[in-house]
From TrEMBL:
<feature type="compositionally biased region" description="Basic and acidic residues">
    <location>
        <begin position="557"/>
        <end position="571"/>
    </location>
</feature>
<dbReference type="GO" id="GO:0030234">
    <property type="term" value="F:enzyme regulator activity"/>
</dbReference>
<feature type="compositionally biased region" description="Basic and acidic residues">
    <location>
        <begin position="18"/>
        <end position="30"/>
    </location>
</feature>
<dbReference type="InterPro" id="IPR050756">
    <property type="entry name" value="CSN3"/>
</dbReference>
<dbReference type="GO" id="GO:0008541">
    <property type="term" value="C:proteasome regulatory particle, lid subcomplex"/>
</dbReference>
<feature type="region of interest" description="Disordered">
    <location>
        <begin position="557"/>
        <end position="587"/>
    </location>
</feature>
<feature type="compositionally biased region" description="Basic and acidic residues">
    <location>
        <begin position="180"/>
        <end position="192"/>
    </location>
</feature>
<feature type="compositionally biased region" description="Basic and acidic residues">
    <location>
        <begin position="1"/>
        <end position="11"/>
    </location>
</feature>
<dbReference type="InterPro" id="IPR013586">
    <property type="entry name" value="PSMD3_C"/>
</dbReference>
<dbReference type="Pfam" id="PF25573">
    <property type="entry name" value="TPR_PSMD3_N"/>
</dbReference>
<dbReference type="InterPro" id="IPR000717">
    <property type="entry name" value="PCI_dom"/>
</dbReference>
<feature type="region of interest" description="Disordered">
    <location>
        <begin position="1"/>
        <end position="73"/>
    </location>
</feature>
<dbReference type="InterPro" id="IPR036390">
    <property type="entry name" value="WH_DNA-bd_sf"/>
</dbReference>
<keyword id="KW-0647">Proteasome</keyword>
<dbReference type="GO" id="GO:0042176">
    <property type="term" value="P:regulation of protein catabolic process"/>
</dbReference>
<dbReference type="Pfam" id="PF08375">
    <property type="entry name" value="Rpn3_C"/>
</dbReference>
<dbReference type="Pfam" id="PF01399">
    <property type="entry name" value="PCI"/>
</dbReference>
């Protein structure tokens, strides 16, 4: 009975014997005594075995290894559960299993022609890369590739990590067989594994893991040579299921060459030598309609040109290529950032502001993309200052941005007040930070904006002010310089005033009501357009299962055919309302 059966662990002791033991437990003491009396010693012995099932075993008894079952290691796993309460998994075995679990996703992506499974495999690299070692990679390669098929590529992978002597075709141990699929017999299992052909997607995925390991171990020269040969192999293949993987390969290919000396922005940097390879990859991706590689290579080329300050070539690339609309959101954010930097250098601040604003909005909100969000926000703040606007104070109060944006906060304060001395002091103190962020040359342009801001503040404070006072307050060299700056500010629309050269003063005009102008309506229109564009992009980015609409159409067509048949039978008199349950009201 349930109330009389205590908790126990019968699997290790092998005490369960089907319904016989359960029947013995449900008998009362008198029936047990009668059974023992008739069966003698043999029954008594069986009764003792029954007692060993009920009584929980001690640690001394459980330490004896039980006999192995058909799989070889289930009983040992149960022993670990009994001793420690949880299964102990070797981290090396777990890492190998995590890598091999992605092979099924890649095979499914090829079978269903669905790139979502490939993206899931690529997303797992971030969690695997911290546990990558040459031994783990070598063991996965050895257990994946048979000695006959794909041996040449497997040997190149092993030589890249310094494991050339590892033999191929190694069979996984019993501790590796933890998947839920039914296991083959001992005779047929290894033969089936050896005869299985490794698809190209698994080749490239393992090669990406080798790239990640070489980059994390700072073996940049070896990684550059390996990536060069890998790019040649990808260029020879023409499989749409490799698009996402090839984009990742070119990404690391560029990163390796960026770390080789002489470093950018030197014109002798090795990153200049990889531009023909990247341009050829872009041309091939456009011809093959490879959206992932096309977007990735365009972003890599823009980064390459900007690192060596080849702004005109970057502008030509943007004007002669079309960035794919269906590209991944991360690639779109990077492209908009680099495009905004190009436009800011070209003095096209309005376009740069639009691109950088879109880049910050598209930036992922996760912690791993915090660096990109900070870099894009820094450049956006500088562009807003160059446009004559003052950034919102709430931008500097964000917890993830406060410390990184502190030098820019001081810069904005100096520009807002129009204090030229404070502005130059801040630039001198934080010059290293601005150079590292790549905004130093743009910040030097803000000197005229500081002067314009000071003139604007004075035009709002005074209805009339002399050029000599302007020269003293802005620390300018002469009244002629003050006159030139004031005239330029009036022409650019920074201030609404008039300049009297004979008397030597500036007269401000009366400030009207801003709501009587078109400015509020234009700002409202810009916000509505941004919201509508965001909605359209979200709709375009939605993904649906492939060929799902065909199944729905098929079901709808079958339903219509059944309705026609039922209506025809009703008209012929074969069916009536009673046969239909009284719910059919006609067509």
């Amino acid at each position: 009975m349930p109330g009389k059966t205590p908790d126990k662990e019968p699997v290790e002791n092998g005490g369960y014997r089907g319904g016989k033991d359960i029947e013995m437990k449900e008998k009362d003491e008198q029936e047990q005594a009668a059974s023992l009396k008739h069966k003698g010693k043999k029954a008594a012995k069986d009764g003792e075995d029954e007692m060993t099932v009920v009584v929980p075993p001690s640690k001394k008894q459980s330490s004896v290894p039980p006999p192995n079952d058909a799989d070889g290691d289930v009983a040992m796993d149960d022993l670990d559960k009994a001793d420690d309460g949880e299964v102990k998994v070797d981290p090396v075995v777990q890492a190998i299993n995590d890598i091999k679990s992605n092979f099924a996703l890649l095979e499914r992506a090829v079978a269903l022609f669905d790139a979502r499974f490939t993206l899931r495999a690529l997303r797992s690299i971030s969690s695997i890369r911290k546990r990558l070692t040459p031994d783990i990679i070598a063991q996965v390669i050895s257990e994946t590739y048979p000695p006959t098929s794909g041996a040449h590529f497997a040997k190149s992978l092993l030589s890249a990590i310094g494991k050339e002597n590892v033999p191929l075709g190694r069979q996984p141990g019993p501790e590796m067989e933890i998947d839920s699929e039914p296991k083959a017999s001992a005779k047929n299992g290894p033969k089936k594994e050896n005869n299985k052909e490794v698809i190209a997607e698994i080749d490239i995925f393992l090669a990406i893991l080798v790239q990640v390991y070489l980059f994390d171990s700072k073996a940049y020269q070896l990684g550059a040579e390996f990536s060069q040969s890998l790019c040649d192999r990808i260029h020879s293949l023409n499989r749409r299921t490799l698009d996402s993987l090839s984009a990742k390969v070119y990404f690391y290919y560029s990163l390796f060459f960026e770390q080789l000396s002489p470093l950018p922005p030197s014109s002798q940097s090795p990153i200049v030598s990889i531009r023909p390879t990247l341009l050829a990859a872009l041309r091939t991706a456009v011809l093959r309609r490879d959206i992932d590689t096309q977007a990735s290579v365009i972003v890599i080329l823009l980064r390459n040109y900007l690192q060596t300050s080849h702004i005109s070539q970057a502008d030509l690339l943007v004007s002669h290529t079309q960035f794919p609309e269906n590209a991944a959101n991360n690639q779109v954010a990077r492209f908009l950032y680099y495009l905004g930097r190009i436009r800011a250098i070209q003095l096209r601040y309005t376009e740069a502001h639009e691109h950088l604003t879109a880049a910050t909005r598209k930036a992922p909100s996760s912690a791993c993309a915090l660096g990109f969000a900070q870099t894009a926000t820094k450049l956006l703040l500088v562009v807003e200052l160059l446009m004559g606007d003052i950034p919102d104070r709430a931008t500097f109060r964000q917890p993830t941005m406060e410390q990184a944006l502190h030098p820019y906060f001081l810069l904005v304060q100096a520009v807002r007040v129009g204090n030229l001395d404070s502005f130059e002091t801040i630039i001198a103190e934080h010059a290293d930070v601005f150079r590292r962020d790549g905004t130093y040359s743009l910040i030097l342009r803000l000197r005229q904006n500081v002067i314009k801001t000071g003139i604007r503040m004075m035009s709002l404070s005074y209805s009339r002010i002399s050029l000599r006072d302007i020269c003293i307050r802005l620390h300018l060299g002469s009244e002629e310089s003050a006159e030139y700056i004031v005239a330029k500010a009036i022409r650019d629309g920074v201030i609404e005033a008039s300049l009297d050269r004979e008397r030597g003063f500036m007269k401000s005009k009366e400030v009207g009501d801003v709501y009587a102008t078109r400015e509020p309506g234009e700002a409202f229109h810009e916000r509505i357009r941004a919201c509508l564009s965001l909605h359209d992009e979200s709709v375009k980015a939605m993904r649906f299962p492939m060929n799902q609409h065909r199944l729905e159409l098929k079901n709808a067509q079958e339903a219509r055919e059944r309705e026609r048949e039922m209506a025809k039978e009703i008209q012929d008199g074969d069916l009536d309302e009673d046969d239909l349950g009284g719910e059919f009201e006609g067509m």
